[in-house]
């Protein structure tokens, strides 16, 4: 059995080391398991303490995906086992979301550059890993999305924080529709920073070995600059030097940005939902598909995503993770998450029976249960010790 994550340390020409972590489950599109989470977290902590490691590269095995999401099969089994027992009764879900969110937060606040190679499919838990990296790189094969509405969840892994920081109202649109973004739109939406062609990735990695990385604090040639600042700059220069020469054409999100902002302009979810639904027969296939995905998705997920975006709009990253943790455990217990996984991955009938079945039933009173802390009195939040994070 192969290792779930492959780790390697490459020695640059000046003796500095580059830590490389490769998600190694290409048969499941590098779906993020709890084992992967624990292996990554432990190694990132070790590399953070090692002054010889200048930066970290995070990538996925195979050419189809960086990471297509989290361990839905494991969560589904745990939901069957603890059905009807309440949000706090599922130890696997408690551990999975706590440890996954801790890893994501660590990436956001990491003391060294992290380059994430977001080739191929990047969804759900993959977005959680990628969005906190200091240098997020996409390619012509990249397809990014947070399609949790289709499985009865919501854009978690810090997705609420990310969506609230996108231009205009596009974050709300993406939360409700799970729309796919190509490389151009990922950069426009703030989900990526740089782009490389897949064919140039090996050549770019070779070029990294020739950079004069700063490893030891205060080492030769650093002057008054901290090693982090030097290495951030060197990595940026290398990425820009290998950027494709062909101009980046606007993707469908940017092309339709005015319309997206218009249909999402209301502060009432029912009005936004109705406006997006009207796009289901639009001549543009990207808009039509987005509307149809929303209409086929969980009304409860739409309400929850909308409520989380409103409640956490001005909160710190750490506070967002804490809110998402409570909501995720409620999703595990409520039923739509289990039903969404069943319809998509278990029975594969793609005919989920959502409860509540309509947005009118999933009203503002109904969604309050997703914000009630489920643990016994006197128990502190499992993520209480997360730092303030990004503002």
From TrEMBL:
The gene is echA8_7. One of its GO terms (cellular component) is cytosol. It catalyses: 3-hydroxy-2-methylpropanoyl-CoA + H2O = 3-hydroxy-2-methylpropanoate + CoA + H(+). This is 3-hydroxyisobutyryl-CoA hydrolase. Pfam families: ECH_2. Residues 19-371 form the Enoyl-CoA hydratase/isomerase domain. One of its GO terms (biological process) is L-valine catabolic process. It comes from Bordetella pseudohinzii. Keywords: Hydrolase, Lyase. SUPFAM superfamilies: ClpP/crotonase. NCBIfam families: PRK05617.1 (NF004127). It comes from the Bacteria. One of its GO terms (molecular function) is 3-hydroxyisobutyryl-CoA hydrolase activity. Its EC number is 3.1.2.4. Gene3D superfamilies: 2-enoyl-CoA Hydratase, Chain A, domain 1.
């Amino acid at each position: 059995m192969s290792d779930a994550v492959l780790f390697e340390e490459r020695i640059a020409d000046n003796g500095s080391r580059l830590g490389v972590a490769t998600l190694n489950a290409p048969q499941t599109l590098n779906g993020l398991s709890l084992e992967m989470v624990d292996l990554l977290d432990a190694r990132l902590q070790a590399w953070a303490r090692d002054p010889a490691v200048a930066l970290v590269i995070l990538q996925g095995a195979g050419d189809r995906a960086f990471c297509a999401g989290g361990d839905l099969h494991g969560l589904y089994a745990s939901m069957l086992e603890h059905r009807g027992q309440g949000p706090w009764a599922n130890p696997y879900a408690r551990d999975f979301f706590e440890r996954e969110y801790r890893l994501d937060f660590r990436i956001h606040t990491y003391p060294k550059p992290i380059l994430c190679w977001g080739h191929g499919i990047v969804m759900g838990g993959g977005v959680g890993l990628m969005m906190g990296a200091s240098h997020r790189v996409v390619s012509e094969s990249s397809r990014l999305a947070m399609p949790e509405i289709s499985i009865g969840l919501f854009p978690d892994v810090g997705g609420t924080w990310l969506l609230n920081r996108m231009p205009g109202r596009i974050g709300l649109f993406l939360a409700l529709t799970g729309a796919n973004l190509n490389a151009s739109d990922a950069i426009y939406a703030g989900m990526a920073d740089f782009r490389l062609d897949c064919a140039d990735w090996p050549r770019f990695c070779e070029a990294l070995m020739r950079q004069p990385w700063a490893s030891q604090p205060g080492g030769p040639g650093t002057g008054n600059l901290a090693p982090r600042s030097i290495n951030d700059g060197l990595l940026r220069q290398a990425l820009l030097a290998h950027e494709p020469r062909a101009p980046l054409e606007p993707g469908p999100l940017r092309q339709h940005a005015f319309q997206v902002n218009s249909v999402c302009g209301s502060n009432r979810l029912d009005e936004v939902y109705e406006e997006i639904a009207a796009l289901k027969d639009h001549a543009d296939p990207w808009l039509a598909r987005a509307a149809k995905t929303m209409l086929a998705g969980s009304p409860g997920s739409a309400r929850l995503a909308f409520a989380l975006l409103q409640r956490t709009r001005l909160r710190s990253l750490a506070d967002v993770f804490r809110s998402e943790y409570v909501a995720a455990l409620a999703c595990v217990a409520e039923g739509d998450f289990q039903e969404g996984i069943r319809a998509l991955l278990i029975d594969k009938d793609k005919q989920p029976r959502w409860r509540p079945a309509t947005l009118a039933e999933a009203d503002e009173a109904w969604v309050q249960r997703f914000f009630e802390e489920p643990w016994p009195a006197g128990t502190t939040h499992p993520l209480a010790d997360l730092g303030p994070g990004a503002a």
